[in-house]
Specification:
Largest sheet: 6 strands, mixed
Structural class: alpha+beta
Number of strands: 13
Helix content: 55-70%
Number of helices: 24
Oligomer: single chain
């Protein structure tokens, strides 16, 4: 009898379990194959502003304005890889296989695809960066490997060398017959390039330089292309000239030298060169990073890249620049293209992530009002606040980096000193700000897609891991922001000494005058939608904040330097200085976004961009509302109005989110995430097929 009860109870439990399983399967089936006839329920948002006119956005028109004149070359890149499945990077691939595939991808693109990026590095940098963005979106490892070959190794030859170097190496670099490295970073010195310890001593008897690694700390480290494929390296070393005094040698500062590291025919490591593999990394494992040690490696005197300094046959040093510091600045100034490229490419990564997360959020349905269909998760306010300001930032960064590329291209043609300074400051600030923002946003996008965002096939993991190092190479972000802060303080001193401010900093003169005056108690209380969406109010608010931070940190530095000295005072105010630099960059980004809105020729596209620009501006102001409230720049009621309007703009941008992400014009092959394809009905089908259904 007791056995019968137990058996009956087990049967009942089994039936209940089966019922639960069946119900769960049915729910999953509905998600995988949503009923097409059921309209998606949208959550309504209570109106908090005046009635806003609906915007009809033409994706094609907006995309044409966004992508500009180099759209065709990017389409060629996408078409090449889309037509060659064997060159597409699989989800699961070993380090060694990935490295070989990356080399095949680069060689194929150049030799078979006929796309020659190196020809544009100097003559048309905007076209080069457009190719780099497209290549990086195919595989970020490939984008970095291409950058090492052409922007770093090739760029150092054409920018730091002279005609004899270009004549000898250009064709080989262009065709990838001369794969090369950029050997600057050492084990003990990364950001502090002036502290490099590798030495290049001139031997007048043989007319050669002797390259030496004096200690373990001077080993060249993290050198891309070194571990497997590189045959040459541009080595940065201290140029030592023999003297006839007791010192024996004179240190002429850091210079660049072309050093062969492998035999051109056998590919064996050359005598005196030691190469070691840096191994498996967090990301970018298609790039063969290695370590280089040199033991009395002799190279011809002509291998000195001598644009800014040369050594004659008898050992005399000549330069058009009078000091080591000026030569060093000129050398690094010619390498600023790497930062420009990273800022531009980082926006490309952000576009991919935002496209995938937004499309998924439009497709995915969860919960809803009682006895009604489930609603899109992008209808939830929390999801809008995660993704819509990010989408607005992506647009803002797009226009800011386009301007940076234009300025860089102009600089390469004119060599104007004022423009060189502007590009240096902008590239440092935008690279630091954008790559940091993108790194955080990649995690947010992954979280916004729930468990499906954790699947490797949906790309967030690889994008996050590959992009993470963008915050470090080509200048650590914290160091770069300090450079921007230092330049701001220099301009601040110029302002009060009556000097002329350069273009990028012009706004400081007017906004500093505004800061030194008290906030206007009338405008501090204006809270109408027209006022808050006025570009003048938005830009003034951004610039006011920058000027306030600049004035206050200048006072703090002056006070602390009396007791701590210059270095100690800087360190005491470091977080303040970083905030100042970020504020300045945000002001610049908004300025360029406002200009892009104004210049858009299509009325509907302009209206959409204005909406997105307003969200970018008001979201930033609200995120730092404490700063504005502390000095009564914004009254309490105005602060509430800003918050309410930013919230409403989030909702309005959501309503055109599909058109906005489609305007980036990234083909499904590029996003490659099943949950991020353009056609919702295909999304879950591709996803389930990927795991074997």
């Amino acid at each position: 009898m007791e056995l019968q009860k137990i058996s009956s109870k087990c049967l009942q439990n089994s039936e209940e379990t089966a019922e639960v399983v069946n119900r769960r399967i049915n729910l999953l089936t509905l998600h995988l194959n949503p009923v097409q006839d059921t309209p998606v329920q949208e959550l309504e948002l209570l109106r908090c502003a005046g009635k806003m006119k609906a915007i009809n956005v033409s994706t094609e028109t907006l995309s044409e304005y966004m992508r500009g004149k180099h759209r065709d070359i990017q389409e060629e890149v996408f078409a090449y890889f889309n037509s060659r499945p064997k060159l597409q990077t699989p989800i699961e691939i070993s380090k060694d296989e990935h490295r070989e595939l990356c080399m095949k991808q680069l060689v194929g693109l150049v030799r078979e695809g006929g796309i020659r990026p190196f020809r544009y590095v100097v003559d048309d940098p905007a076209k080069y960066f457009a190719i780099a963005e497209a290549v990086g979106s195919v595989d970020m490892s490939l984008g970095i490997k291409m950058g090492v070959q052409y922007s770093l190794w090739g760029g150092s030859v054409v920018n730091l060398g002279t005609k004899k170097h270009r004549d000898k190496y250009f064709d080989g670099i262009d065709s990838v017959d001369y794969p090369g490295c950029f050997a600057m970073t050492e084990l003990h010195h990364g950001s502090n390039v002036q502290g490099l310890q590798t030495v290049a001593t001139f031997d007048p008897l043989t007319d050669e330089f002797i390259i030496d690694t004096p200690n373990d700390g001077a080993i060249k480290w993290w050198i891309g292309n070194a571990a497997v494929h590189g045959k040459f390296a541009t080595v940065f070393a201290r140029l030592m000239l023999p003297t006839h005094d007791t010192k024996g040698v004179t240190d002429m500062g850091v210079h660049a030298f072309i050093v062969p590291i492998r035999d051109m025919k056998t590919h064996k490591t050359l005598p005196g060169v030691e190469i070691h593999d840096c191994g498996h990394k967090v990301g970018l494992n298609g790039v063969d990073n290695g370590a280089l040690r040199f033991r009395s490696v002799r190279i011809p005197r002509d291998n000195l890249l001598n644009r800014f300094g040369d050594v004659s046959r008898d050992g005399r040093y000549t330069s058009s620049l009078p000091t080591i510091s000026k030569r060093f600045a000129a050398t690094l100034g010619e390498l600023v293209g790497g930062r420009v490229g990273l800022a531009y490419s980082s926006v490309g990564v952000l576009k991919i992530a935002v496209v995938i997360a937004t499309r998924y959020s439009l497709l995915r349905q969860q919960f809803g009002p009682p006895k009604q269909p489930e609603v899109s998760i992008l209808d939830y306010q929390s999801q809008q606040h995660k993704l819509m300001p990010m989408l607005a930032s992506t647009y803002a960064f797009h226009f800011a980096t386009l301007h940076l590329v234009e300025k860089y291209s102009e600089m390469k043609k004119s060599h104007d000193e004022e423009l060189i300074g502007d590009v240096h400051a902008l590239s440092a600030g935008l690279k630091a700000y954008i790559t940091s923002y993108t790194a955080k946003s990649l995690s947010t996008c992954r979280e916004a897609c729930g468990g499906h965002g954790y699947a490797a096939v949906n790309r967030f993991g690889s994008l996050r891991n590959d992009h993470d190092i963008f915050q470090t190479f080509e200048g650590d972000n914290t160091v770069l922001l300090q450079q921007v802060a230092g330049l701001l303080l220099k301009q601040y001193r110029e302002k009060f000494q009556g000097g002329t401010l350069t273009v990028t900093w012009n706004y400081l003169r007017q906004s500093m005058n505004s800061y030194l005056a008290q906030p206007n108690p009338v405008t501090a209380r204006w809270e109408s939608e027209d006022h808050l969406r006025n570009p003048s109010f938005q830009l003034d608010a951004f610039r006011y904040r920058t000027s306030r931070l600049l004035q206050s940190v200048a006072i703090r530095l002056q006070r602390h330097s009396k007791t701590l000295g210059g270095f100690g005072a800087w360190n005491r105010c470091l977080n303040h200085l970083l905030t100042l630099a970020e504020s300045h960059i945000e002001s610049f980004i908004l300025e360029k976004f406002i200009e892009a809105v104004k210049n858009c020729p299509d009325e509907n596209s302009r209206a959409a961009l204005k909406l997105v620009c307003d969200l970018y501006a008001l979201d930033r102001i609200w995120n730092d509302i404490g700063t504005y409230r502390n000095v009564d720049y914004v009254a309490p009621n105005k602060a509430k109005a800003i918050h309410k309007l930013a919230d409403y703009l989030c909702f309005q941008v959501k309503n055109i989110a599909r058109e906005l992400v489609d305007a980036f014009d990234l083909p499904d092959y590029v996003t490659r995430a099943p949950i991020g394809v353009q056609t919702p009905s295909e999304a879950y089908t591709q996803y389930t097929q990927n795991v074997g259904f």
